[in-house]
Specification:
Elements (H helix, E strand, L loop, with lengths): L1 H8 L1 H22 L11 H12 L14 H14 L1 H15 L6 H7 L13 H39 L1 H10 L3 H13 L18 H13 L4 H16 L2 H8 L12 H26 L10 H14 L15 H12 L23 H5 L4 H15 L1 H6 L6 H12 L33 H15 L15
Helix pairs in contact: 2-3, 2-4, 3-20, 4-9, 5-7, 7-8, 7-9, 7-10, 7-12, 10-14, 11-12, 13-14, 13-15, 15-19, 17-19, 17-20, 19-20
Length: 476
């Protein structure tokens, strides 16, 4: 129980160490392997940037993806898998069941009465404590089943599609990509909401493969915004057919179990409505502004409808793209920025959130007063990037404009990965040595700017620990 209490008090530090460790380990392995292109070797900073981006499921890049060999793509796949929210939450559940084991002795019950979760009425009842423990184990098994099943279904579906559809198969042949590697990499990246695709053009090159887009779109939702309602439905379904007491307990005590993905019925219902409303709003604006322009110009009506749906599903946390963001209207870009800023479980209708503080050890009130809001931190990061890139803002104002910088920073904060990229044709002063590359806008940042984006990606991955920051500020 002492270890369990320590973990509860230091979750932020442990998760920070976890992401830094897997990113650093991935960087060490990636650096030791040969890239696919012998004429070009990425700099260490760019490799570390890529590993942090994969571990924090952000997908911002400073090197082209086709530079990496098949083995390096496997390493990035592992980083995206173990950095995904569903996997890390499952790992947290297994650690809880490992360290939290109820005892039937009165002394143990007395100690458990200060457990920092909302079970004060249960603490004097051995049966309920045992049921709670069994329910947590059951929940961890359900999440594991969910993770494995959705991944396998997606991988098989993508592999069959590539095998059957010659257009997609030919693209992989031109790129010298293995179908199995592409299927596994893409599904892991999509479900974890990372957004990396092993092609330089991301999903732009597959924009006419509507079947592939329809396979990936549900993966995006199942791994992020719709995970809580689907998880709750799965637990309810299992309980309906097996009559397991743990299932009823999980549904009844969802607010007090400490697993923030298991939302109440009301919150789950409102979340589904919110997601649908956001998709409809984005779909309407994107269609009205971009229907006959940019990357959608040479697509038929069906392909446009599927492509726009896929793009709008991606904006809130995945970052896969079938369009060149630098060519779309500013109004759509601003809407995308808002979507990337919003947390995944945002609801636009009021939801009562029950909190439980008895027995918990929180930060001191003095430290709480010095925590800024999420928006305040974003403003600070944007200002810092504008300072580090001030020379390029002056010399290359069309590429290094404030809107592009804001989108890049908020994309990193939201762990989305959408980026406008860099276009040599927009330079005000011609540069014969400039070459257009298929990587994010961050790739043209200075080393100092890239370090700032790395910090923003890590901060964004851990933003749940400061979601209520800034309460000390009173705007009157």
């Amino acid at each position: 129980m002492k270890i369990y209490s320590y973990v509860r008090r230091n979750k932020f530090s442990l998760e920070l160490i976890y992401f830094l460790f897997i990113a650093s380990l991935g960087f060490s392995v990636l650096r030791s392997l040969d890239v696919k292109t012998p004429t070009f070797k990425p700099r260490n900073l760019d490799l570390f940037f890529t590993c942090v981006s994969a571990a924090t499921v952000t997908s911002l890049s400073t090197v082209e993806m086709e530079v990496f060999s098949n083995t390096q793509l496997v390493i990035l796949t592992i980083l995206m898998l173990i950095g995904g929210e569903v996997f890390t939450s499952m790992l947290s559940l297994y650690l809880r069941t490992l360290f939290f084991k109820p005892s039937l002795s009165p002394a143990s019950n007395e100690h458990l009465s200060v457990d920092p979760e909302c079970f004060n009425s249960d603490n004097n009842n051995d049966n309920l404590l045992a049921l709670k423990y069994k329910s947590l184990k059951f929940l961890s098994l359900v999440v594991l089943f969910y993770l494995v099943y959705v991944h396998l279904l997606g991988m098989i579906s993508v592999f069959i599609y590539i095998t059957v559809i010659s257009r997609a198969r030919n693209i992989l042949k031109q790129k010298s990509l293995h179908a199995v590697t592409f299927s596994i990499f893409t599904i892991v990246s999509t479900f974890s909401n990372c957004g990396f695709i092993p092609t330089n053009e991301n999903m732009l090159i597959f924009r006419k493969n509507s079947g592939l887009l329809l396979i990936l779109a549900p993966q995006i939702l199942l791994g992020n915004t719709l995970y809580p309602p689907v998880l709750r439905s799965l637990i309810w379904t299992i309980g309906r057919f097996t009559k397991k007491e743990e299932s009823r307990y999980l549904l009844r005590k969802s607010k007090g179990l400490g697993y923030h993905h298991l939302l109440s019925y009301k919150h789950s219902y409102l979340l589904v409505i919110t997601v649908l409303v956001f998709l409809v709003v984005q779909f309407i604006l994107f269609s009205s502004m971009e229907w006959s322009l940019g990357s959608l110009r040479d697509m038929n009506v069906y392909q446009k409808l599927v492509g726009i749906l896929f793009q709008t599903v991606n904006t809130q946390h995945t970052g896969e793209s079938i369009v060149d963001l630098s060519t779309i209207s500013s109004a759509v870009l601003v809407l995308f920025i808002v979507m990337m800023y919003l947390p995944p479980y945002t609801t636009f209708l009021p939801v009562e959130v029950e909190t439980c503080e008895q027995g918990s050890k929180r930060w001191s009130k003095a430290m709480e007063n010095f925590k800024f809001s999420q928006l305040a931190y974003l403003v600070m990061f944007i200002i810092i990037v504008c300072i580090t890139e001030r020379k390029q803002i002056v010399n290359d104002p069309l590429n290094f404009n404030v809107l592009n910088i804001v989108l890049e920073v908020i994309s990193a904060y939201g762990n989305v990965g959408l980026s406008t990229g860099y276009n040599c044709g927009r330079r005000t002063e011609p540069n014969g040595g400039c070459q257009n590359k298929w990587y994010g806008f961050s790739g043209k940042f200075s080393d100092e700017g890239k370090v700032v984006i790395i910090l923003v990606m890590i901060f964004g991955r851990l933003k749940k620990f400061n979601i209520n920051g800034g309460k000390a500020w009173k705007l009157l």
